[in-house]
């Protein structure tokens, strides 16, 4: 009976919270069971923790940087991005502190096919328009464009998982649509970030 009571409590707990996947909830509860509750909670603290990472200094500057685009009135505008060099440097540094699946896969792929000047790894990118909330709403100002990148050498099995992709840009669709050529111009400027000289 004790197990039945525990299962009932778990189900009540899950149903009383905002929706998240069973996998996500299991990961959250497992982490709390292992490490306890974080000292800080709440939306404002989540934002501050994220901003601290985005401002972290790397040999390539902070992760949060900007691209310049031209809007339909021929005025320069800026859009924030996660610099790919700084992102990768920070990610590899953080990965080295803990043992996780992606770290093992990345290490394995690097050993199988080390990138060289003559045979570098291939970068692949894609974009998607994301609609949080009611996707059928006639006017949805929360819709945004997302651009992602990763390495082709990770293989199709890995690339089918969303956590194998780095997010380089998130911007509201209403803002992107005000630019000359819309997403095409923005995407072109994002691509150029992979070819900028990044000196140590």
User: What count of domains describes the coordinates?
Assistant: 2
Main sheet properties: 3 strands, antiparallel
The first-to-last residue Cα distance is: 63 Å
Write the H/E string, N to C: HHHEEHHEEHEHH
User: Total number of helical segments?
Assistant: 8
Shape: globular
User: What is the tally of beta strands?
Assistant: 5
What percent of residues adopt helix (DSSP H or I)?
Answer: 40-55%
Sheet with the most strands: spatial strand order: 3-4-5
Rg (C-alpha, Å): 21 Å
SS strand fraction: 15-25%
Residue-averaged pLDDT: 87
Low-confidence stretches: none
The structural class is alpha+beta
Keywords:
single chain; 200 residues; alpha+beta; 2 domains; 8 helices; globular
Chart the SSEs and their pairings:
Elements: H1 2-15, H2 22-35, H3 43-54, E1 64-70, E2 76-82, H4 84-95, H5 101-112, E3 123-130, E4 144-151, H6 156-159, E5 166-172, H7 173-176, H8 183-192
Antiparallel strand pairs: 1-2, 3-4, 4-5
